[in-house]
């Protein structure tokens, strides 16, 4: 059964954003000499999200005169915060401002709340007001807000790259011009979980197996996070990275999302090769941002 | 030819003495294992447990352990080794195939980081100029002690233990198969921790980039770094491997250069070894096709 939006969807998110607005970011920027390069300078950034909650991020600024296009990496579903994603050419940092945020619960943003993996997806899921992803979504928005305050950033070329949270960020806050989204969490979550034994969706199966009486509450909470309900609010140019044909989140499964996005949408189905899929994404981004060539890791050149 | 690539690492003359002393030290530490049922992660078909045990330096190490509920007699067992920055998976898929399955969370991973937590990035270069305190000295022991845990379990057949993993899990598979004769079969994908010094010249991507970052700040430490890593390089361990083993690599791997995968494969001592090189694949190393290969390989040696 397809997950539908709860009636209070808009109000729920407006409250989340209103709450975030109560807390100034108060950024604290510190040079990280170990992660600098000849072509880029790396900083840590601490900033406040709703709660209040103090967050951590990596910010890399290219050498030279900006402004530069920017890549925003909202929180992934893992404990580790990467300065830039594993396997990405470090030289990307010569072209792009990069900003990678640890949402609440991830390493470096784990005081006072340290998330478990698995565990995060069902953390306080019985109540939409306390569900951990309400705070994480607000963190994502705060990260984008901060990035857009940087004078080095070319506001005409800002991409959010990530899982569901990239699209949710673009839905909740203007500012990203592009989105690259590989959904994995909030597409008909309960029904999708029932079709797999793989984590993180298996967390939902685990939870409902132990607490079957809480299914309605879980469904209600997840209604606030259903990706297709965010899609109509997204006006950015979007690359949707779908699973391979026939897989759990293939293009057909994502059609409820792709068909509702208001910006230009490209749906790319995985070829089950991180090389082919990765090349496609890098070249798509280079084209969109007006570069002749993508910056690729050595073994992709 | 990439298939003839040779890495620069040379096994130190006192390699066996070094690891012999570390293993002796570890052997003096009682495992003190605790096995706690996890109803949240269990089902009608599987039991799941959180395991903890003691390791070097007094570090308490966590693991996930899964068993099929339907079982007759002793089970074959599989150790599934974790990646570098990913969080260790609960190995339900292996248990569904009829194995006792364990996934370690060596020191620094979540649930094993109360006493040691250099973070990511940082683990790869933590005390990298000193083999006696380098992070992977304890990290390797933590991983190898999963075998000791399995040997305490009455439901496990000690003659049918395999080890598998990809990326760092591939590197840990290599060292475990080399150092633990109880391992009867192994599968290493996209092996990390193999050919460190070549890898940092062949690629500028994390996590190997951590070493480049370190050497940029401390260029005078290069000889010490190289000397330390020779004791921890999977290629230095490889000629000790005697069990059947398969390796899979992606020829466009942007994390663990395929050159190092070939060098590792060529150094493996087992006569029963096979390399699967997947063209047009990156760090996933052909996982979609290769999963069935691994499943069949383990079934042949542990279940038939």
Structure explained in plain terms:
With 301 residues, chain A is α/β, with parallel strands linked by helices. Chain A has helices spanning 9-21, 132-149, 164-172, 189-194, 202-210, 215-223, 227-230, 255-258, 274-288; strands spanning 28-31, 40-49, 53-62, 68-73, 97-102, 153-162, 178-181, 237-242, 265-269. Chain A contains 9 helices and 9 strands. A 9-stranded mixed β-sheet of chain A has the order 1-2-3-5-4-6-7-8-9, sandwiched between helices. In chain A, a hairpin with an 8-residue loop joins strand 1 and strand 2 (40-49). In chain A, helix 1 packs across helix 2 (132-149) and helix 2 crosses helix 3 (164-172). The mean pLDDT of chain A is 97. Helices cover 34% and strands 21% of the residues of chain B. By secondary structure, chain B is an alpha/beta fold. The termini of chain B are far apart. Chain B is built from 10 helices and 9 strands. Chain B is globular. The interface between A and B is large, with 44 and 46 residues.
Please specify the SSE layout and strand pairing.
The complex is a heterodimer of chains A (301) and B (304).
Chain A: H1 9-21, E1 28-31, E2 40-49, E3 53-62, E4 68-73, E5 97-102, H2 132-149, E6 153-162, H3 164-172, E7 178-181, H4 189-194, H5 202-210, H6 215-223, H7 227-230, E8 237-242, H8 255-258, E9 265-269, H9 274-288
Parallel strand pairs in A: 4-5, 4-6, 6-7, 7-8, 8-9
Antiparallel strand pairs in A: 1-2, 2-3, 3-5
Helix pairs in contact in A: 1-2, 2-3
Chain B: H1 15-27, E1 34-37, E2 46-54, E3 60-68, E4 75-81, H2 92-96, E5 100-105, H3 135-152, E6 156-166, H4 168-179, E7 183-189, H5 196-202, H6 209-217, H7 222-230, H8 234-237, E8 245-250, H9 258-267, E9 273-278, H10 287-303
Parallel strand pairs in B: 4-5, 4-6, 6-7, 7-8, 8-9
Antiparallel strand pairs in B: 1-2, 2-3, 3-5
């Amino acid at each position: 059964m397809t997950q539908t939006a709860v009636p209070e969807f808009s109000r729920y998110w407006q409250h989340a954003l209103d709450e975030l607005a109560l807390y100034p970011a108060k950024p604290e920027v510190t040079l990280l000499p170990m992660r600098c390069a000849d072509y880029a300078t790396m900083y840590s950034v601490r900033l406040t999200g709703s709660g209040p909650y103090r967050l951590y991020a990596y910010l890399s600024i290219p050498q030279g005169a900006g402004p530069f296009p920017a890549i925003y990496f909202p929180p992934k579903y893992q404990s580790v915060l990467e300065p830039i994603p594993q396997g990405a050419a470090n030289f990307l940092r010569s072209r792009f401002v990069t900003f990678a945020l640890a949402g609440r619960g991830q390493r470096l943003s784990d005081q006072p709340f340290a998330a478990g993996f698995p565990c995060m997806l069902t953390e306080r899921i019985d109540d939409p007001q306390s569900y951990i992803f309400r705070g994480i979504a607000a963190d994502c928005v705060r990260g984008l807000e901060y990035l857009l305050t940087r004078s080095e950033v070319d506001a005409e070329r800002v991409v959010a790259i990530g899982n569901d949270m990239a699209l949710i960020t673009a839905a909740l806050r203007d500012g990203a011009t592009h989105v690259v989204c590989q959904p994995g969490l909030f597409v008909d979550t309960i029904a999708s979980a029932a079709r797999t034994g793989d984590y993180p969706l298996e967390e939902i199966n685990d939870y409902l197996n132990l607490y079957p009486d809480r299914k309605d509450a879980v469904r209600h909470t997840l209604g606030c996070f259903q990706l297709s309900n965010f899609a109509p609010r997204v006006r950015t140019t979007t690359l949707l990275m779908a699973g391979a044909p026939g897989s759990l989140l293939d293009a057909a499964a994502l059609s409820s999302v792709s068909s509702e996005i208001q910006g230009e949408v490209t749906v790319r189905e995985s070829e089950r090769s991180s090389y082919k899929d990765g090349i496609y994404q890098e070249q798509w981004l280079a084209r969109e941002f007006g570069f002749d060539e993508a910056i690729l890791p050595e073994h992709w050149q | 030819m990439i298939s003839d690539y040779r890495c620069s690492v040379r096994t130190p003359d006192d390699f066996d003495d070094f690891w012999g002393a570390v293993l002796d030290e570890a052997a003096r530490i009682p495992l003190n294992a605790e096995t706690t049922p996890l109803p949240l992660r269990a089902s009608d078909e599987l039991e799941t447990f959180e395991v903890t045990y003691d390791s070097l330096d007094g570090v308490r190490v966590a693991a996930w352990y899964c068993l099929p509920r339907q079982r007759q007699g002793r089970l074959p067992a599989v150790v599934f080794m974790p990646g570098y920055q990913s969080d260790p998976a609960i190995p339900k898929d292996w248990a569904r195939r009829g194995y006792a399955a364990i996934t370690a969370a060596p020191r620094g991973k979540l649930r094993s980081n109360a006493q040691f937590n250099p973070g990511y990035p940082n683990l790869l270069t933590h005390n990298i100029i000193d083999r006696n305190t380098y992070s992977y000295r304890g990290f390797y022991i933590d991983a190898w002690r999963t075998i000791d845990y399995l040997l305490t379990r009455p439901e496990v057949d000690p003659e049918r233990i395999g080890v598998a993993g990809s990326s760092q899990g591939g590197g840990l598979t290599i060292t475990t198969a080399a150092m633990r004769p109880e391992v009867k079969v192994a599968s290493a994908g996209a092996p990390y921790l193999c050919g460190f010094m070549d890898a940092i010249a062949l690629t500028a991507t994390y996590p190997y980039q951590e070493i480049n970052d370190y050497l940029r700040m401390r260029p005078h430490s290069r000889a010490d770094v190289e000397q330390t890593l020779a004791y921890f390089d999977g290629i230095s361990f490889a000629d000790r491997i005697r069990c059947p083993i398969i390796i899979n690599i992606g020829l466009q791997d942007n994390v663990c250069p395929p050159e190092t995968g070939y060098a590792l494969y060529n150094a493996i001592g087992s006569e029963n070894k096979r390399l699967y090189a997947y063209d047009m694949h990156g760090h996933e190393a052909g996982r979609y096709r290769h999963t069935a290969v691994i499943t069949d390989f383990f079934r042949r040696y542990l279940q038939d």
